[in-house]
Write a structure and sequence with these properties.
With 287 residues, the protein is of the alpha/beta class. The protein has helices at residues 6-12, 19-26, 77-87, 106-120, 122-125, 139-153, 175-179, 188-198, 232-244, 271-286, and strands spanning 34-40, 43-49, 57-63, 90-95, 127-137, 161-165, 220-228, 249-258. The N and C termini lie far apart (42 Å). Residues 60-262 form the Alpha/beta hydrolase fold-3 domain.
C-alpha cells in the first residue's frame, strides 16, 4: 500500500477480487444462507438471511475493512454468513464510499445512514429492530464504533451490541504499532498512507472514537485483537476506556494472529474460534 501510486490506488479501490480467488482467500458464506443485493440511496447493500425459522431475528449491520480505501461486499461473505447462520440473524453489509475519491466523512455518513435505514426497515427484512447490533473489522471496526456513538448522541437507533474486530480507534503511537511496524498484512507505512488518503482530524472522535468526550451509555461490546497486529493496542485501549465508562466489555486476544486474520478463514487457525466467540457474545446480548 505504502508504495502504490495514486493511479494504482484508484484502480484497486472498490475493485473486487475474481470469485475463485476470493473464495480461496476470503472464504465463502455457509450453506443455507441466502444473499440479496440492493441499492439504497446510492449505497450498495448485501443482505444475508438464514433458513426460515418463523421468528423475528436479530439485526446486525456490518462494515468491512480496508483502510477506508479498499474493500467491497464480497470481503465480508464468510463473516456475515457465519453470523447470519450461527446467530439466526439478518445481516446487512454496507459498501460505503471509499477514499481517496470520497474522503472523510463520506464513509461515516454512509454507514450511519444505512444503520438508520436498516433499523427502520427491520420488519421488512424479517428482523427485530429491538435486537440491533453493529459489527466491523479494522477500518470497519472504527466505523462501527463511530456509528454506535452517533446513535447514542442522536437518540437512536438503539444498539444492543457492538462487535469490534481489530478496530482502528485512534490510539496514537502505541507499543503494538512500534513492535509490529513491519508486520504481515498491515504495516505502519500502510497505516500512514491510509490515514492521509482518508483525511479528517485525528482529534475528531469520528476519526478517533477513543477521543470521544464520553464513552458512557454505549452498548455491550466485544473486542477481538491479534497479537501480531499494529492495531492490537487500539483495541485493548478502547476496551479499557469503555470499561472505565461503565460499559460491559469482553476483550478476546489471539496472541498468534496478525491483523485481518478473520478475513482469511482458510489460513488463520483462530478464525473459526474467534467468529464463534463473536456469535456467542451477540447471542448473550440479544437474549
Amino acid at each position: 500500500m505504502s508504495t502504490a501510486t495514486p493511479e494504482q490506488i484508484a484502480r484497486r479501490s472498490g475493485a473486487g477480487a475474481p470469485e475463485l480467488m476470493a473464495s480461496i482467500l476470503l472464504g465463502s458464506r455457509p450453506k443455507g444462507v441466502t444473499v440479496a443485493d440492493r441499492t439504497v440511496e446510492g449505497i450498495r447493500l448485501r443482505i444475508y438471511k438464514p433458513a426460515e425459522s418463523g421468528t423475528a431475528r436479530p439485526l446486525i449491520v456490518y462494515f468491512h475493512g480496508g483502510g477506508f480505501v479498499y474493500g467491497d461486499l464480497r470481503g465480508g461473505d464468510w463473516m456475515c454468513g457465519t453470523v447470519a447462520k450461527g446467530l439466526d440473524a439478518i445481516v446487512v453489509s454496507v459498501e460505503y464510499r471509499l477514499a481517496p475519491k470520497h474522503p472523510f466523512p463520506a464513509g461515516v455518513d454512509d454507514c450511519f445512514a444505512m444503520l438508520i435505514w436498516a433499523a427502520h426497515h427491520a420488519r421488512e427484512l424479517g428482523a427485530d429492530a429491538d435486537r440491533l447490533g453493529v459489527m466491523g473489522e479494522s477500518a470497519g471496526g472504527n466505523l462501527a464504533a463511530v456509528a454506535a456513538l452517533m446513535a447514542r448522541d442522536n437518540g437512536g437507533p438503539r444498539i444492543r451490541h457492538q462487535a469490534l474486530l481489530y478496530p482502528a480507534t485512534g490510539a496514537g503511537e502505541t507499543e503494538s504499532r512500534r513492535a509490529n511496524a513491519d508486520a504481515y498484512i498491515l504495516t505502519a507505512a500502510d497505516m500512514a498512507t491510509f490515514g492521509e488518503l482518508y483525511g479528517g482530524d485525528v482529534d475528531d472522535w469520528r476519526v478517533s472514537p477513543l477521543k470521544a468526550e464520553s464513552l458512557a451509555g454505549l452498548p455491550a461490546t466485544t473486542v477481538i485483537v491479534g497479537g501480531h497486529d499494529p492495531l492490537h493496542d487500539d483495541g485493548v485501549n478502547y476496551a479499557d476506556a469503555l470499561r472505565e465508562a461503565g460499559v460491559g466489555v469482553q476483550l478476546i486476544e489471539y496472541p498468534a494472529m496478525p491483523h485481518g486474520f478473520l478475513n482469511f478463514p482458510r489460513f488463520a487457525r483462530d478464525a473459526d474460534t474467534a467468529m464463534t466467540a463473536v456469535v456467542n457474545a451477540q447471542r448473550s446480548a440479544f437474549g
